[in-house]
Amino acid sequence: xxxxxxxxxxxxxxxxxxxxxxxxxxxxxxxxxxxxxxxxxxxxxxxxxxxxxxxxxxxxxxxxxxxxxxxxxxxxxxxxxxxxxxxxxxxxxxxxxxxxxxxxxxxxxxxxxxxxxxxxxxxxxxxxxxxxxxxxxxxxxxxxxxxxxxxxxxxxxxxxxxxxxxxxxxxxxxxxxxxxxxxxxxxxxxxxxxxxxxxxxxxxxxxxxxxxxxxxxxxxxxxxxxxxxxxxxxxxxxxxxxxxxxxxxxxxxxxxxxxxxxxxxxxxxxxxxxxxxxxxxxxxxxxxxxxxxxxxxxxxxxxxxxxxxxxxx
Length: 313
Description:
By secondary structure, this protein is α/β, with parallel strands linked by helices. It has 14 helices and seven strands.
């Protein structure tokens, strides 16, 4: 298992301070990574701290031209990894957010029916003959993410993010399997993410390289927080990192990810906290506890976590 390097977890913002990595000007030349070390360096340049395992998986996916399936708990930085990869490659990110009931037309293309209707009425007003073929041309085509990625032009293929594929239906998964098997002449860089809310088909998994992203180790988590909230001091960063790690061991509905950790540290910093004390934990608990049950569980565990009656000086 490996650890993520997102400075904003699943929210996708990987730049310190909570902003997504600015793509800047897209590259006019093909960007290539010669080795794993280059992958890590280029991702670090867009403020995505990545470990050896994740960098290696990305390098293999780019070099071998294979889709990369990233799985892990919500909040570990899977979506942010794809966004950071696009920023590091200086190419376009095309995102398809999956959900139950996602249709083929929403993923591939749709016809602009309103524009077709206007064309019909205009032709009628001019007493012009209009064939069916005239209405089904590129002029009336609305490209959706997969077709956009296939038809993308430019020196650098785009990164196509198929986000939360486990939320889509089996029918869409079958479509995606066909796409991955018969992609364009120059296929996009495909990254799929899954929270494992359901099992994906073996056939789809076999098409992809696979990598599991875990929550970051304390040292890496602290560095992410340090970059994301530069106003926080070292004692607060250290205690926040330790607290989040221990809270994840509790029986929570939604364990806090890096996005929540950054929000929490930002809130503590806004309060002027120089160290972590019980009163400030309770005042800011809404940033890391996302359900009433989780709030109660964390509050009840504060004594065991070492915050029994502590107050700010």
